[in-house]
Backbone:
């Protein structure tokens, strides 16, 4: 199976960094929607006296028109991020992976909202917890991952 069958796009570090302004802008909108969702959710929970431990909790919340609309908007924003070829891995944490070819292995350039640039990578099986700093080619240690 080739990389293009699994990931629609493979990025270099430079390509991922050039895309960050767009990704940041989308996450700005994501966080605005999350704030609306939290505020409205608290009001609905109090007003309807909903039990967060109830199995029907999310269904009851979604009965509220504003909550339903904001959830839909969040799904659309995540889809916009994914449509760029990167992978939104954690909406609230602002985690995005950019598939990258390192030798013959696909790894992920890893970015978290608030970081200035792509500075980390990880193997698929390691996830965010296993992210490692990119190495600078100028340091002579190893070549840059891209």
Residues:
């Amino acid at each position: 199976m080739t990389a293009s069958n699994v990931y629609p796009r493979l990025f270099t570090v430079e390509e991922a960094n050039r895309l960050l302004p767009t990704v940041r802008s989308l996450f700005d909108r994501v966080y605005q929607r999350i704030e609306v969702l939290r505020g409205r959710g608290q009001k609905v929970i109090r007003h309807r006296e909903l039990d967060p431990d109830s199995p029907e909790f999310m269904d009851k919340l979604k009965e509220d028109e504003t909550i339903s609309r904001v959830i839909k908007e969040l799904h659309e924003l995540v889809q916009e991020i994914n449509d760029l070829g990167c992978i939104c891995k954690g909406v609230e944490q602002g985690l995005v992976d950019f598939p990258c070819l390192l030798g013959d292995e696909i790894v992920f350039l890893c970015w978290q909202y608030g970081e200035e640039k792509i500075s980390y990578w990880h193997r698929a099986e390691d996830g965010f917890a296993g992210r490692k700093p990119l190495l600078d080619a100028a340091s002579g240690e190893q070549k840059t991952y891209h």
Q: What stands out?
A: The CA atoms of residues 40 and 66 lie 8 Å apart. Helices lie at 3-6, 13-48, 57-62, 65-83.
